[in-house]
């Protein structure tokens, strides 16, 4: 009997361990997301808010975002970058774990926005939803052309009905907001619109959302930042401090994320008018995204802040997937951006971990630099994000327009085989030796495991090389594969059995070619061998 009870106890312990492990759910970036039942998920420029389920009263996460027609088109065919952004509505999804999402409703429809008008186009985006207790109603706030539109509903599931538009000129000097999101302070229940000046974006404001003259609207405004132009304005709260975040003015492209910190929601935000870059985000422009919004997960064991970035870029061309989510770490009040391709979240405990299938290569598809590099225009830059280019022999890299180009503009035909608009380019008009590489190692918050790895990439190359190889080097050992012939079509190359030691590896490409020879590289992957 004792033996039976012992086996039973071991079984219960093992089952409990499996159930605890099962509470971790995977978040995978660089791909298109689906709902729980497999339908495409379309949600951009929105936010996630916690509201009670209208039927059960259970607290759930509600994710609101704009559905654009071109998001469908790009998902169907990623070889074409779509130039427009036709509004299809605001979608609402619900979840209890922030990973498995259920489509709830199209809460703001084109019919509600445009009515009987024949002109059913124009910009709608950058939106959020707040519950206002005094009115016992929900308000959806969204940019609509050159004004801010307010729509009201009795349920978080809508339908939201247009209430009014607000021209912001009498407050901030422009009729429109630059970019905006809704932030809710869960400790006070108050919500705020975070937005920038409509021209130049060099000022950021906060306005409390509330009831005024029986209308749900903005109650006031306060400037909390003035300085360099910023957009993608959003906020989060962590350990009783308020963080104001924004991106650079790079249009549709990914950019560096910035932040300021305050003890009070209305500031002062410090360092005053001097936004700081999120450490960890520099090498790939915040995982090739723009600041969208944040979710703070307060679990039973830990609190995790999730950066939720948007990939806009005229509806992509800068990699797959519209939503790029990564966990933040903190050193005091300084946030750290963990740029991960795949990670697991336990929404109940608030814990997270790196997933076993994470691609450790940074800027793996060379999409962070959406422009031709070197670039003489914003950003002025002579290198590829996340990669180091060493010219051993040949023409030096410079802003001279006649010099070597570090990246290649993928054609529509090429994008049937590789991801995004750009790939690595190794070529020169004279004989050259080019070495392009990156070092992968542990960060202050994520350990790069000592394990065996597989390195793959897609290449397309001419002949005319004395040496053309892909390699990985760790612990004094070098693992290589040599490309010995021309590849007229994109071909996958592979280095297997890479043993990482000392939690560090260098991966890269070495090209020793004659004048006019070229090698293009795309879609690099470094993953643990299963």
Automatic annotation (TrEMBL):
Keywords: Glycosidase, Hydrolase, Signal
Keyword Transferase: no
Signal peptide bounds: 1-21
Pfam families to which the protein is assigned, alphabetical: Glyco_hydro_43 (PF04616)
GO biological process, one term: carbohydrate metabolic process
Gene Ontology molecular functions: hydrolase activity, hydrolyzing O-glycosyl compounds
SUPFAM superfamilies membership: Arabinanase/levansucrase/invertase (SSF75005)
Family: Belongs to the glycosyl hydrolase 43 family.
Record protein name field: Glycosyl hydrolase family 43
Species of origin: Neolewinella xylanilytica
């Amino acid at each position: 009997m004792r033996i039976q009870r012992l086996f039973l106890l071991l079984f219960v312990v093992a089952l409990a361990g499996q159930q605890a492990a099962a509470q971790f759910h995977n978040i995978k970036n660089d791909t298109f997301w689906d709902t729980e039942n497999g339908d495409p998920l379309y949600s951009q420029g929105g936010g996630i808010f916690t509201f009670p389920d209208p039927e059960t009263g259970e607290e759930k996460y509600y994710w609101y975002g704009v559905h654009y027609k071109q998001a469908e088109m790009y998902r169907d065919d990623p070889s074409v970058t779509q130039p427009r952004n036709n509004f299809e509505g605001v979608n609402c999804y619900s979840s209890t774990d922030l990973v498995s999402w259920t489509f709830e409703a199209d809460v703001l429809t084109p019919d509600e926005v445009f009515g009987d008008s024949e002109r059913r186009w124009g910009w709608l985006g950058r939106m959020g939803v707040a519950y206002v207790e005094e009115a016992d109603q929900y308000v959806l706030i969204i940019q609509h052309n050159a004004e801010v539109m307010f729509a009201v509903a009795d349920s978080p599931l809508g339908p939201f009905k247009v209430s009014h538009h607000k021209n912001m000129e009498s407050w901030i000097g422009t009729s429109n907001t630059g970019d905006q999101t809704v932030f809710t302070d869960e400790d006070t229940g108050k919500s705020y619109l975070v937005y920038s000046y409509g021209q130049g974006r060099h000022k950021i404001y906060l306005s409390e959302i509330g009831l005024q003259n029986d209308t749900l609207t903005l109650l006031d405004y306060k400037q909390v930042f003035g300085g360099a132009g910023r957009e993608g304005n959003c906020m989060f709260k962590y350990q009783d401090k308020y963080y104001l975040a924004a991106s650079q003015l790079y249009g549709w492209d990914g950019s560096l994320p910035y932040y300021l910190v305050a003890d009070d929601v209305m500031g002062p935000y410090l360092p005053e008018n001097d936004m700081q870059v999120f450490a960890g985000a520099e090498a790939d422009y915040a995982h090739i995204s723009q600041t969208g919004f944040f979710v703070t997960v307060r679990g039973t064991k830990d609190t995790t802040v999730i950066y939720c970035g948007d990939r806009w870029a005229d509806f992509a061309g800068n990699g797959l997937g519209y939503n790029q989510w990564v966990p933040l770490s903190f050193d005091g009040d300084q946030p750290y951006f963990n740029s991960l391709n795949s990670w697991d979240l336990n929404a109940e405990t608030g814990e997270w971990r790196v997933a076993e299938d994470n691609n450790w290569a940074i800027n793996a598809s060379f999409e962070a630099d959406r422009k031709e590099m070197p670039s003489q225009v914003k950003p002025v830059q002579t290198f590829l994000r996340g990669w180091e280019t060493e010219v051993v022999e040949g023409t030096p890299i410079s802003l001279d327009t006649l010099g070597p180009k570090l990246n290649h503009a993928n054609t529509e035909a090429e994008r049937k085989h590789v991801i995004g608009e750009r790939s690595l380019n190794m070529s020169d008009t004279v004989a050259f030796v080019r070495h392009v590489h990156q070092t992968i190692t542990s960060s202050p918050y994520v350990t790069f495991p000592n394990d065996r790895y597989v390195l793959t990439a897609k290449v397309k190359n001419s002949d005319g090389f004395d040496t053309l190889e892909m390699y990985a080097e760790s612990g004094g050992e070098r693992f290589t594969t040599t490309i010995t012939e021309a590849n007229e079509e994109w071909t996958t190359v592979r280095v297997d059995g890479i043993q990482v030691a000392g939690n560090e590896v260098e991966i890269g490409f070495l090209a020793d070619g004659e004048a006019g020879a070229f090698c293009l590289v795309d879609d690099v992957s470094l993953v643990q061998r299963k």
